[in-house]
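Supplementary Methods S3. Complex input for the fe (ii) ion-bound model.
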Amino acid sequence: MTTSRSILSVLTIISAVVFLGMTIDTLRKLPAQTHSDQISAQVVEGKRLWQHYDCNDCHTILGIGGYYAPDVTKSYTVRGDAWLRQFLKDPAAMYPTGRQMPNFHLTDAQVAPLLAYLKWVSEVDTNGWPPAPKGVARQEPAGHAIFLAQHCNTCHAIQGSGGTLAPDLTHEGSRHDQAWILDQLNDPRSHKADSIMPSFAQLPGTEKDELAEYLVSLK
Amino acid sequence: MRYQSQKLAREYFWAALPLFFLQVVFGILASIKYVWGFDPLLNSIPFNVARTIHLNLLVFWLLLALMGATYYMVADEIQTEIYSIRLARIQLGILLASGVAAILGYFFQWSFGMPFLEQPTLIKVVIVVGALIFLYNIAMTMFRNHHQLTGTTATLLGGMVMLAVMFLFGIPFMPNLSTQYYFWWWVIHLWVEGAWELIAAALVAWALIKLTGVSRRRVEGWVFAEVVLVLLTGIIGTGHHYYWIGTPHYWLWWGAIFSAAEPLPIMLMLVDAVRSLLKARTLATVNTMALAWLGASAFVHFMGAGVWGFGQTLPQINRWTHGTQITASHGHFAFWGAYGMLAIALMYAILPEISGRKQRNGAEGLSFSAFVCLNLSMIFMVMALLIAGIVQVYLQRVMGLDFLEVQNQLRLWLAVRLVAGGVFTVGAVLLLGDLYRLARPLPAAGSA
Ligand code: HEM
Ligand code: HEM
Ligand SMILES: [Fe+2]
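Predicted complex, serialized as structure tokens:
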């Protein structure tokens, strides 16, 4: 009885020592795996803001936190800089209906560090998490991927999938030409003074072209 | 009850119970937002604030209840008055004040911003002071009559010290999020799968000895095995949270192997409890409700932590389920079974001793309704979250649909959770009423 007790106790102490050893090893390897040389003062400021606004109790990051809002680990890669910049300054403009993120009235001086932080997180080596989906790898035109990535579908539908707040774009190609659509993207108010569609002027030119080409192809 | 200072337990329970009720209210508030797309409170009590308060109150009322029970149990085991009633009251005051300040602060974006550990640093420091007073008071009580020190009380003190030490790792701001989460888990995981398990094992052992008449020698032998196995599996088992946060790949092996063994000590606790409860049938008078809650707690602890935890602990599964409603299902089931139900069991065990009221005085209906209401609705909540989680994993992680689109598909199950939460709230009110009835001093004073 007492010997088995001693053996168990010793094993437990060994396990604690092993855990501390692994902690030291992990802390040694962490800088390379998380690109800690990329953690600039701006990234740290972004993390500070992320904590200040308690974003983590709605969102998960690295899969930890509240389950109410999308995981932001890869947001920077999936949504891109331009979209995020606009979204963070006025979430409701991009998502007028459904579940909402509060408008924190972030200034440009706050959005920039937050984006730097999200960019840094997106580059952390997470041992392959989140996994790539296995489902429906449908062959989609590149423009459609941008359409989804920019969340045009929160307002517009194409072939029955998407929002109802804005015109259905299933036959957009038979209504407008490419130049008109580019104008619409750059400045929706050039066509309708009180348009609620956000401007996508900041998108890279190639993405705007691809998007417009795709919409024109929808006859 | 033999010592006047044991009445401290009642003061701690009184503080804990309204906080439990408030916790549930904020849980309801948060879960309404899942069901109703439009959120009128978006700018006053947004989801993150409701969740923060729900989590803080959860940890807070559980700790107050366990500390209150500890004061009662230590006096009973060591056979002496508590070292200082005054200090115990100061401690309660400090903790309550810091808790209230933290919760008011959350409405004004005064937050540290890490889940569960949202308390601003200043408040964390005050909480540490409160914890130190507690540890000092308990340690001094033990020294008063140290040859009475039992294995159970030593385990309890050990758990409480570990709890305080781990909390320290949640205080600093770390520039690297991966490092920050590495040590965040030293608080969250090494609490619920380490320190709190020790505290629970000790308090359960004491309650079983008191309530069922099993021999101390036997129960304490079990406690030793449970505690050692909890630590042996649980410390390196922390690795099941180090799969995907920017930490080395070897954690997938270490975390999986050790955490897969974590249900073992929890199963021992269940077997231990069942054997003792069977023994209680031979007693002439029994505290039925205390035993019912204790037994049910052992079972739900095993299901929620052991089975639900095991179900998602292997990296091949966790890769898909990580950070979904499945996690929420497990969090609720485990916390409720292991610690919520235990805290309630201890109140049922201790309050009648303090008030001198016997269990059987014609209000068993109320006790029974509260028991059924709370536990049945919790099972519905946890099942609804599990189904929602499985649908979410399939649509979002496997099929690759957008997060918000998937959330729309989950609405039905989150509505079931909300309704079950409503029933749970009714149960909480019944429980408060029943415990109040039990805790009131007898009209004819002088019962000791
Ligand atoms: C009416 C009853 C309750 C309702 C409606 C409710 C609702 C909620 C909601 C909406 C969340 C946020 C989850 C998310 O981020 O999406 C949450 C989190 C949580 N609640 Fe509750 N809750 C209730 C009762 C309880 C009880 C009694 C306990 C424990 C004893 C508890 C423990 C927790 C825990 C541990 C979490 C964090 C889960 C995680 O991070 O995985 N809740 N609850
Ligand atoms: C009483 C004991 C336990 C309690 C109170 C508990 C509670 C929790 C909570 C609240 C979380 C969510 C943390 C967060 O916000 O991210 C969690 C996560 C987790 N728990 Fe437990 N747990 C317990 C025991 C266990 C056991 C014994 C196992 C394994 C056998 C386990 C496996 C896990 C895993 C794998 C996760 C991560 C889920 C994810 O990846 O999202 N838990 N637990
Ligand atoms: Fe864990």
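The longest strand of chain A covers residues 60-61. Chain A has nine helices and four strands.
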